[in-house]
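[step 3/7] fold_predict: job queued, chain A
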Amino acid sequence: MRGTRVIASLSGIRGILNQDLSLADVARFVSNFAEASGGKEFLLARDTRKTGPVICRAVAAGVMSLGGTVLDYGVISTPALFRESRMKGVPAVMVTASHNEPEYNGLKFIVAGAGIGKETFEKVVGRRPAGGRQFAEGRLVQPAKPGYVDSLAARYGDGSCEGVKVAVDLGGGAAIAHAVPLLRRLGCEVASLNDSYSVFTRAVDPIADDLVLLRRTVREKGCALGLGFDCDGDRLVIVDSSGKKRSGDFMLTLALQRLILETREKQVVVSMDTTQAVEDVARKAGCRVLRSRVGETNVVQAMKSEGARLGGEGSSGGLIDGDFNYCRDSLLAALAIIKALREKGDALYSSVPTYHQERIALRIPRQKAEKAFKVMARQYERTDLTDGLKIALPQGAWVLMRPSGTEDVVRVSAEAPSAAKAKSIAKDFARKLGRRSS
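[step 4/7] structure written:
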């Protein structure tokens, strides 16, 4: 489903309020979700966008009109709400547009601590005949604070990160509710930036922003690590002790390296476009890497079907530990890295291999692209058609060509040991794909 701007997918519904996403739409989606999930009690939370409060009222109305009870947590992060839904076994709605800019907002739907599947999603966005519902009067409740911070602190122990100096750029978002109290409880020295709710002084997505203030603060205060969060607190980008911003893939590799050793897991699931570095560190630990289609929902589904505890997506700066949360969890990733830093110091940053990625977008209709993928797959020895076409190349390099899920664009992503080589591969295969699709 898509309007001028609104996007609806398994990962949620996003749009600009009163342009392509109305409060009536919100109430309808939520009423559909309430019926599809079969719950009588629902959790509700939001990030810090200024349209959040009014959308939350529409969400509450949609649930309460069916006689449901709404537990409204106010501003907390997406991982915190996923965790609360899991612990209580209650459906939840997160009002957020994730990493989109502040003028956007939207809805994420959660059932028993996990995102919804295709069948439930189709019911959520579907239309029902007028007069098909029995209306009732529900309740709105203000619950106690969520147990998210307590759960993370219990996992690692109060004071367990003592002495590690950390700078955090909270981006005016929902991580303000959790990050600093948790890090200080674990013993970190914390320099807090952009920690006023709803004040956005940089791009919402830390992957897309240069994080100039965070990098400068890390250098000036001699921090071991800088943490950059998005608006709903599920994405994470790190800045190393030299003040260099690192990629989401690098962050994920560091976190997984620590957690694979910590949990002794023997398999991990990552998306098709996640760095080869994950396979390098996993192999050393005797762990097998499985690849899923791109997208958090696809990673989680593969984790469940394969019985894998750990997973993630490098492109979205997301770590997933299925024993704790079935969603990207920025603070869990941050704690894993901080624990490793406390043990290894700055040597941690050179303990994982570094690859370089290059991405190019081409305007190609999906059907033409998919035909070209099949032809090109026959020309190479190591190919994978799980999600578009991925081709393994010498020296750990690869290229992935896959259609966008929302527009007639094919994204060509290449990775190689050097930036120049990655750029050359991306350009070469973009040219080849363009010829095959013409």
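[step 5/7] annotate
The first strand starts at residue 7 and ends at 9.
The chain has a mean pLDDT of 94.
exit 0
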